[in-house]
Specification:
By secondary structure, the protein is of the alpha+beta class. Helices cover 24% and strands 46% of the residues. The protein has a single domain, classed as Beta Barrel (Lipocalin). Strands 1-3-4-5-6-8-9-10 form an 8-stranded antiparallel beta barrel. This is Lipocalin-like domain-containing protein.
Length: 158
């Protein structure tokens, strides 16, 4: 009986060491510090990445350790020619790791926006941020893209 007990004990220890919950990332404010860029975008109608790439040359956000941020939407020449200027939004941010949320505080055009995104990390360098369409369109200078439902922004650390 003893020779069988050792392999079972080793198997049990190996299984205990494979607990995936210990490997989850903590999405606190420090996690976001750095430069991020948009790599994918989808809404309730499906993947909109290819379409948005015709409207945006780049969408980047820099999160600073002092909890300030700057978001820059660099629109394509086509969008600029139609009268939409590039957009820069600045403000502060707060991340609540337990709730998996990222909140921005933006002073824009005499009003204050306070969008909150649901945050999910797929790795240390990739995050998806989900919010209602109206919030995303407001952050993009009220550009009428026609998003439907919730918008999922895939961002990657640069």
């Amino acid at each position: 009986m003893r020779p069988r007990l050792l392999p079972l004990l080793l198997l049990a220890l190996a299984a205990a060491g494979c607990d995936s919950t210990g490997d989850e990332l903590t999405l606190d404010a420090d996690f976001y510090v750095g430069s991020w860029t948009l790599v994918s975008i989808a809404d309730d109608s499906g993947d909109r990445t290819a379409e948005i790439q015709t409207l945006l040359d780049d969408l980047a956000v820099d999160f600073e350790s002092d909890r300030s941020f700057q978001l820059i939407a660099d629109f394509s020449a086509l969008v600029n020619a139609a009268g939409q200027a590039d957009v820069t939004q600045t403000g502060t941010y707060q991340a609540v790791a337990a709730a998996k949320t990222l909140s921005l505080l933006v002073a824009a055009g005499g009003t204050t926006l306070a969008p909150t995104f649901r945050a999910d990390a797929t790795s240390e360098d990739r995050v998806t941020l989900t919010a209602p369409a109206v919030i995303v369109e407001q952050l993009l200078g009220n550009l009428q893209i026609g998003f439907e439902g919730d918008v999922v922004l895939g961002i990657a650390r640069q």
